[in-house]
Amino acid sequence: MSQDILLYNSLTRKKELFQPLHPPFIGIYVCGPTVYGPPHLGHARPYVVFDVVIRYFEHCGFKVRYVRNITDVGHLEGDCDEGEDKILKRARMEQVEPMEVVQRYTREFHAAMDSLNVRSPSIEPLASGHIIEQIEMIKKIMSAGLAYETNGSVYFDVPGYAKNHSYGKLSGRVLDELLTYTRELEGKEEKRNAVDFALWKKADQRHLMRWPSPWGDGFPGWHLECSVMSSKYLGEPFDIHGGGIDLQFPHHECEIAQSVAASGKEPVRCWMHNNLITINGRKMAKSLNNFITIEQLFTGTHPLLKRSYSPMTIRFFILQAHYRSTLDFSNEALEAAEKGLQKIMASVKNLLLLKAGAATSSDVKSLRKKCYDALNDDFNSAVVIAHLFEAARISNAAYAGHETVSAEDLEELKSVMNLFTFDILGLKDENFAQGGKSVEQLMEIIITIRNRARKNKDFATSDAVRDELKKINIQLKDEKDGTTRWEMG
């Protein structure tokens, strides 16, 4: 199916009609995690966001190659060119080999993504698996006269690049201001200019992750890996590069500069950046020690949490805001997301039990178009969810007997709810996901036992069953016709 999709391009700072370079194929690269610690809520947002982007592109008939890297070397503390490698620091603290750290936290990251129903990328390359290609790109940049070697390290010449190119066009930074701000660092390191960034760093004797190069044993700079791996697997230029807004500078700005220097081409057609998840207005980050891990969310073991929350509650929490908006975390916000998700899932269940009646007064037929319009307007999942709430209202009103739904409208409601809730937003009914029909069968047994107690006027047992189920968030509703139904929340 054909859809005109508007994307906000961070480079031009405006919405643009998306037109793939080689239709129907789309190349998407998203910066993956640095695997030096457990995945946290801030990590989850870009991957949930781009999971929806990819699901929608595929629904529209595109063939997507999605590349998401794993940074397992070269990312130094403070996101700069000084300090200790983040993975080496963790390895030293845990007294293990660096690759043990990489393997452990890569597995944890994958497990978290699986729980959140984030599909795996087409290709997931490792930085350490592309050292040769990174060295070759450095050679090209040096041949262009835009990099220099000092004491076994190689740095990108930012002022030299800026003579003929725009450095800072993605992030809005002005080079003269950067030079003024960083002037105090001059003379304290081996760079010619403090704004220059590392393409290759010399490894000292304690540095375990090191490779031979024309400049001596060392390791690649953090920014270089993404330029190398994106161009290798998607070509130059490719369609979409994504990541968190905190990566615009310096990471993505440096990517553009080194890619242009090496190939003479702009590497990306459209840059997409999701905004941050915050706590009390501050970025959630490991560096600020204010993060909540995915596991803590699932187990409820963080001090800011009153209890545990399911994976789909977390996914729904992320998607209820537009990806370019900040999303502030609180326990209350998670509780609200949980109630919203339960309302939608209950309405889906109700649709299965509904029988068609006379024509409804609600505008069912417009819901599909409204959801498409929201996704076509820069993937506005928040507006899609608002329309799903309207569909849920119609479903629940019809189930309660306050409205009737024609056979045609009933089928349309089912189709819209299934398409946008499950296929595109990627939500799951966790009652079925955690046990399938066995959950339904178990509840039938419990309801039968309770109804038998009610028939025998054993109201103490009947009330006890209802109250105990309520404690685990299962509501029983006794209907006028003598039947009992149940729902979560």
Could you walk me through the main structural features you see in this protein, from its secondary elements to its overall organization?
The protein is an alpha/beta fold. The two termini are 37 Å apart. Helices cover 45% and strands 14% of the residues. The chain has three domains: 6-274, HUPs (Rossmann fold); 282-432, Orthogonal Bundle (Isoleucyl-tRNA Synthetase, Domain 1); 435-488, no CATH class. The longest helix has 23 residues, at 331-353. The strands form five sheets. A four-stranded parallel beta sheet has the order 4-3-9-10, with helices on both faces. It has a four-stranded antiparallel beta sheet with strand order 5-6-7-8. It is built from 17 helices and 15 strands. The model has no long low-confidence stretch (mean pLDDT 90). Helix 4 crosses helix 8 and helix 11 packs across helix 13 (381-399). Strand 5 and strand 6 form a beta hairpin.
Task: Describe this structure in a few short sentences.
With 489 residues, the chain is an alpha/beta fold. The chain has helices at residues 41-59, 86-94, 98-115, 131-143, 158-162, 175-181, 222-234, 248-263, 294-299, 311-319, 331-353, 366-376, 381-399, 407-424, 430-433, 437-455, 459-471; strands spanning 6-9, 14-17, 25-30, 63-68, 147-150, 153-156, 197-202, 218-220, 238-244, 268-274, 277-279, 282-283, 327-328, 474-478, 484-488. The chain folds into three domains: 6-274, HUPs (Rossmann fold); 282-432, Orthogonal Bundle (Isoleucyl-tRNA Synthetase, Domain 1); 435-488, no CATH class.
